[in-house]
Amino acid sequence: AQRVTQPEKLLSVFKGAPVELKCNYSYSGSPELFWYVQYSRQRLQLLLRHISRESIKGFTADLNKGETSFHLKKPFAQEEDSAMYYCALSGGSGNTPLVFGKGTRLSVIA
Amino acid sequence: KAGVTQTPRYLIKTRGQQVTLSCSPISGHRSVSWYQQTPGQGLQFLFEYFSETQRNKGNFPGRFSGRQFSNSRSEMNVSTLELGDSALYLCASSPTGARANYGYTFGSGTRLTVV
Which of A14, A69, B58, B85 is the right S-S partner for B45, CB 3.0 to 4.6 Å? Predict the structure, then answer.
Protein backbone atom coordinates (compact mmCIF):
# COMPACT_ATOMS: atom_id res chain seq x y z
CA ALA A 1 0.00 0.00 0.00
CA GLN A 2 1.08 3.55 -0.63
CA ARG A 3 1.45 5.82 2.37
CA VAL A 4 2.84 9.31 2.86
CA THR A 5 3.70 10.69 6.28
CA GLN A 6 4.35 14.31 7.09
CA PRO A 7 5.27 14.28 10.78
CA GLU A 8 4.85 18.01 11.42
CA LYS A 9 1.43 19.65 11.30
CA LEU A 10 2.93 23.09 11.83
CA LEU A 11 6.40 24.46 11.26
CA SER A 12 7.30 27.99 12.24
CA VAL A 13 10.58 29.58 11.15
CA PHE A 14 11.98 33.09 11.07
CA LYS A 15 12.47 34.92 7.81
CA GLY A 16 15.89 34.14 6.41
CA ALA A 17 16.20 30.86 8.32
CA PRO A 18 16.52 27.51 6.53
CA VAL A 19 13.40 25.45 6.04
CA GLU A 20 13.01 21.68 5.90
CA LEU A 21 9.59 20.10 5.55
CA LYS A 22 9.75 16.38 6.19
CA CYS A 23 8.10 13.71 4.10
CA ASN A 24 8.45 9.95 4.46
CA TYR A 25 6.77 7.41 2.27
CA SER A 26 5.96 3.74 2.23
CA TYR A 27 5.92 1.98 -1.11
CA SER A 28 7.72 -1.12 -2.25
CA GLY A 29 8.18 -0.19 -5.90
CA SER A 30 9.53 2.87 -7.68
CA PRO A 31 7.36 5.80 -6.73
CA GLU A 32 7.16 9.24 -8.16
CA LEU A 33 7.12 11.95 -5.49
CA PHE A 34 5.64 15.43 -5.58
CA TRP A 35 5.23 18.49 -3.43
CA TYR A 36 2.01 20.48 -3.76
CA VAL A 37 1.42 23.86 -2.11
CA GLN A 38 -1.67 25.79 -1.16
CA TYR A 39 -1.28 29.50 -0.43
CA SER A 40 -3.98 31.32 1.51
CA ARG A 41 -7.21 31.58 -0.51
CA GLN A 42 -5.62 29.89 -3.52
CA ARG A 43 -6.00 26.51 -5.10
CA LEU A 44 -3.74 23.58 -4.46
CA GLN A 45 -0.93 23.61 -7.04
CA LEU A 46 2.11 21.59 -7.98
CA LEU A 47 5.36 22.95 -6.52
CA LEU A 48 7.83 20.37 -7.77
CA ARG A 49 8.30 16.72 -8.68
CA HIS A 50 11.35 14.61 -8.01
CA ILE A 51 11.74 13.41 -11.55
CA SER A 52 12.29 16.97 -12.78
CA ARG A 53 15.11 17.61 -10.32
CA GLU A 54 14.42 21.33 -10.56
CA SER A 55 14.32 24.16 -8.07
CA ILE A 56 11.08 26.11 -7.81
CA LYS A 57 10.89 29.35 -5.80
CA GLY A 58 14.18 28.32 -4.20
CA PHE A 59 12.78 24.98 -2.97
CA THR A 60 14.46 21.68 -3.68
CA ALA A 61 13.69 18.11 -2.72
CA ASP A 62 15.82 15.01 -3.03
CA LEU A 63 14.43 11.52 -3.15
CA ASN A 64 16.28 9.28 -0.70
CA LYS A 65 15.22 5.73 -1.46
CA GLY A 66 17.26 4.28 1.40
CA GLU A 67 15.48 6.40 3.97
CA THR A 68 12.25 6.52 1.91
CA SER A 69 12.17 10.27 2.32
CA PHE A 70 11.50 13.26 0.11
CA HIS A 71 12.13 16.28 2.32
CA LEU A 72 11.49 19.78 0.96
CA LYS A 73 14.20 22.34 1.65
CA LYS A 74 14.88 26.01 1.17
CA PRO A 75 18.02 27.76 2.44
CA PHE A 76 16.38 31.10 3.29
CA ALA A 77 12.68 31.32 4.11
CA GLN A 78 10.60 34.24 2.84
CA GLU A 79 7.32 35.49 4.26
CA GLU A 80 5.56 34.60 1.02
CA ASP A 81 6.49 30.96 1.58
CA SER A 82 3.88 30.74 4.33
CA ALA A 83 1.42 28.14 3.08
CA MET A 84 0.19 24.58 3.45
CA TYR A 85 2.54 22.04 1.90
CA TYR A 86 1.53 18.52 0.87
CA CYS A 87 3.82 15.68 -0.08
CA ALA A 88 2.29 13.20 -2.54
CA LEU A 89 3.21 9.88 -4.08
CA SER A 90 2.19 8.06 -7.23
CA GLY A 91 3.27 4.44 -7.27
CA GLY A 92 3.37 1.64 -9.75
CA SER A 93 2.50 2.44 -13.32
CA GLY A 94 1.98 5.88 -14.68
CA ASN A 95 -1.76 5.58 -14.21
CA THR A 96 -1.88 5.34 -10.45
CA PRO A 97 -3.47 8.21 -8.53
CA LEU A 98 -1.76 10.55 -6.12
CA VAL A 99 -1.77 9.72 -2.44
CA PHE A 100 -1.25 12.78 -0.26
CA GLY A 101 0.21 13.28 3.16
CA LYS A 102 -1.82 15.25 5.67
CA GLY A 103 0.18 18.38 5.07
CA THR A 104 2.43 20.74 6.99
CA ARG A 105 1.56 24.36 7.56
CA LEU A 106 4.64 26.54 7.19
CA SER A 107 4.56 29.88 8.95
CA VAL A 108 7.41 32.28 8.24
CA ILE A 109 7.76 34.91 10.93
CA ALA A 110 9.08 38.34 9.99
CA LYS B 1 -7.39 29.14 -20.77
CA ALA B 2 -10.11 28.41 -18.25
CA GLY B 3 -9.15 26.46 -15.16
CA VAL B 4 -10.94 23.61 -13.45
CA THR B 5 -14.45 24.66 -12.55
CA GLN B 6 -16.41 23.07 -9.75
CA THR B 7 -20.05 23.72 -9.04
CA PRO B 8 -21.65 24.53 -6.77
CA ARG B 9 -19.16 26.21 -4.44
CA TYR B 10 -21.24 25.57 -1.33
CA LEU B 11 -23.95 23.08 -0.45
CA ILE B 12 -25.95 22.38 2.68
CA LYS B 13 -27.81 19.10 2.78
CA THR B 14 -29.71 17.09 5.34
CA ARG B 15 -28.73 13.63 6.51
CA GLY B 16 -30.18 10.97 4.26
CA GLN B 17 -30.34 13.17 1.19
CA GLN B 18 -28.21 12.71 -1.88
CA VAL B 19 -26.01 15.23 -3.64
CA THR B 20 -24.36 15.64 -7.03
CA LEU B 21 -21.21 17.69 -7.54
CA SER B 22 -19.89 18.77 -10.91
CA CYS B 23 -16.41 19.32 -12.29
CA SER B 24 -15.43 20.77 -15.66
CA PRO B 25 -11.77 20.04 -16.38
CA ILE B 26 -9.37 22.10 -18.44
CA SER B 27 -10.09 21.74 -22.11
CA GLY B 28 -8.21 18.78 -23.52
CA HIS B 29 -7.67 17.10 -20.15
CA ARG B 30 -8.94 13.53 -20.13
CA SER B 31 -8.20 12.58 -16.52
CA VAL B 32 -10.39 13.82 -13.68
CA SER B 33 -9.77 12.84 -10.07
CA TRP B 34 -11.83 13.54 -6.99
CA TYR B 35 -10.56 14.04 -3.46
CA GLN B 36 -12.26 14.57 -0.12
CA GLN B 37 -10.48 17.05 2.12
CA THR B 38 -11.14 17.24 5.85
CA PRO B 39 -9.11 18.79 8.70
CA GLY B 40 -8.56 15.43 10.35
CA GLN B 41 -7.83 13.18 7.36
CA GLY B 42 -6.37 15.62 4.85
CA LEU B 43 -6.79 14.78 1.16
CA GLN B 44 -8.26 11.36 0.55
CA PHE B 45 -8.57 9.94 -2.94
CA LEU B 46 -12.07 9.05 -4.06
CA PHE B 47 -11.77 8.01 -7.70
CA GLU B 48 -10.25 8.86 -11.06
CA TYR B 49 -11.89 8.85 -14.45
CA PHE B 50 -10.08 8.74 -17.75
CA SER B 51 -11.88 8.84 -21.08
CA GLU B 52 -15.23 8.05 -19.44
CA THR B 53 -13.88 5.00 -17.58
CA GLN B 54 -13.17 4.72 -13.88
CA ARG B 55 -9.47 3.99 -13.80
CA ASN B 56 -8.83 4.05 -10.05
CA LYS B 57 -10.95 3.94 -6.93
CA GLY B 58 -10.18 4.88 -3.36
CA ASN B 59 -11.37 3.26 -0.19
CA PHE B 60 -14.79 4.85 0.17
CA PRO B 61 -18.18 3.17 0.59
CA GLY B 62 -20.44 2.51 -2.35
CA ARG B 63 -22.52 5.58 -1.46
CA PHE B 64 -19.85 7.54 -3.29
CA SER B 65 -20.00 7.21 -7.04
CA GLY B 66 -19.01 9.15 -10.08
CA ARG B 67 -19.03 9.30 -13.82
CA GLN B 68 -17.39 11.10 -16.68
CA PHE B 69 -19.02 12.30 -19.85
CA SER B 70 -17.69 12.33 -23.39
CA ASN B 71 -16.65 15.99 -23.00
CA SER B 72 -14.57 14.95 -19.95
CA ARG B 73 -16.84 16.74 -17.50
CA SER B 74 -17.31 14.68 -14.38
CA GLU B 75 -19.88 14.36 -11.66
CA MET B 76 -19.71 12.69 -8.31
CA ASN B 77 -22.72 11.58 -6.33
CA VAL B 78 -23.08 10.84 -2.67
CA SER B 79 -26.25 9.05 -1.62
CA THR B 80 -27.73 8.73 1.86
CA LEU B 81 -25.61 11.53 3.25
CA GLU B 82 -24.07 11.20 6.68
CA LEU B 83 -22.75 13.93 8.97
CA GLY B 84 -19.24 12.63 8.37
CA ASP B 85 -19.52 13.41 4.68
CA SER B 86 -19.16 17.11 5.47
CA ALA B 87 -15.97 18.11 3.70
CA LEU B 88 -14.39 20.04 0.89
CA TYR B 89 -14.55 17.99 -2.30
CA LEU B 90 -11.77 18.76 -4.74
CA CYS B 91 -11.59 17.91 -8.39
CA ALA B 92 -8.28 17.70 -10.21
CA SER B 93 -7.72 17.42 -13.94
CA SER B 94 -4.73 16.36 -15.98
CA PRO B 95 -4.02 15.49 -19.61
CA THR B 96 -3.09 11.93 -18.75
CA GLY B 97 -3.00 11.39 -14.99
CA ALA B 98 -1.02 12.12 -11.84
CA ARG B 99 2.34 11.96 -13.57
CA ALA B 100 1.62 14.43 -16.34
CA ASN B 101 4.31 17.07 -16.76
CA TYR B 102 2.42 19.76 -14.90
CA GLY B 103 0.78 17.43 -12.43
CA TYR B 104 -2.79 17.94 -11.43
CA THR B 105 -4.67 21.21 -11.83
CA PHE B 106 -7.10 21.58 -8.96
CA GLY B 107 -10.44 23.29 -8.77
CA SER B 108 -11.52 25.50 -5.87
CA GLY B 109 -13.68 22.74 -4.47
CA THR B 110 -17.25 22.29 -3.33
CA ARG B 111 -17.84 22.76 0.39
CA LEU B 112 -20.50 20.26 1.47
CA THR B 113 -22.10 20.59 4.86
CA VAL B 114 -24.44 17.86 6.07
CA VAL B 115 -26.79 18.82 8.90
Answer: B58
Distance CA B67, CA A25 (A): 30
Contact (CB, 8 A) for A97 and A88: no
CA nearest B109 in A: which residue? Answer: A43
CB contact under 8 A, A46 and B99: no
Distances in Å between the Cα of A42 and the Cα atoms of A67, A107, B51 are 32, 16, 28
Residues of chain B with C-beta less than 8 angstroms from the C-beta of A86: 42-43
For residue A34, give the nearest of B35, B44, B103 by CB distance: B103
A70-106 core/surface letters (b: 16 or more CB in 10 A; e: else):
bbbebeebeeebbbbbbbbbbbeeeebbbbbbbbbeb
Provide the residue type at A54 as one letter.
Answer: E
Does the pLDDT value for residue B42 go beyond 70?
yes
CA of B48: which chain A residue's CA is closest? A97
B85/B114 Cα distance (integer angstroms) = 7
Write out pLDDT tens, residues A14-60.
Answer: 999 999 999 999 988 888 899 999 999 999 999 998 877 777 899 99
Cα–chain center distance at B7:
10
Q: Tell me whether B41 touches chain A (CB under 8 Å).
A: yes
